[in-house]
Amino acid sequence: MIAVMLHRWGASEVRADPGELLDVTFWGAVWLVLWFVGFPWLGLSYQDDVVEGRNVATLVALCGAIMAVAIIYAGGSIGEGPSYWENVFSVGLGSAAFLVLWILLELGARVSMSVTEERDAASGLRLGGFLLAAALVIARAVAGDWHSVAGTLHDFIRDGWPAAMLCAMAVRTERFARPSRRRPVPPWATYGLVPALSYLALGAAWLRHLGPWEGMPR
To answer: What's the CA gap between 176 and 183, in Å, rounded?
Structure first.
């Protein structure tokens, strides 16, 4: 997915040189591995929950999380700039914002407990959907041609603030939809798929509102 996005929307030198494309994609794979190793610190463990515990809810959430990280990496690597260090700054900025939003969701709603301990499929869908939607907004906010650090921060705040609104919405949704004594096993379609698609629809609507980023290849 990273390679396809870079091939279509990356800097001109990346699109023109297969070696450059392979190099940027390789570092994207390294970035994904680092995040994957860190996921247990956020409450999602592939080895413990998926392999050993056969927890489908965790698998769904992890799929959304790893795709979200890939989207942010690709978004931060899109656009023209004087060097790859500008890509590093954009990817780091987007990833830091993504991490903060995930931590806020965890602190506000303890979603990892619903996913890993309650093994609630609806919670896994909601978490995966939120992470993907937030990543779309953040990736769009860090995409585009490089001008300066101040300009990048300005564009990020201007275009990425709806990700915080999505987080607030997700916290409220989790408090209502998570498993409870009255509803120990919430229906995955009503309490999982519908909220997840709602997050994604809102994220997609914001991207449509913003339109093409600066320097987007036609």
So the answer is: 11
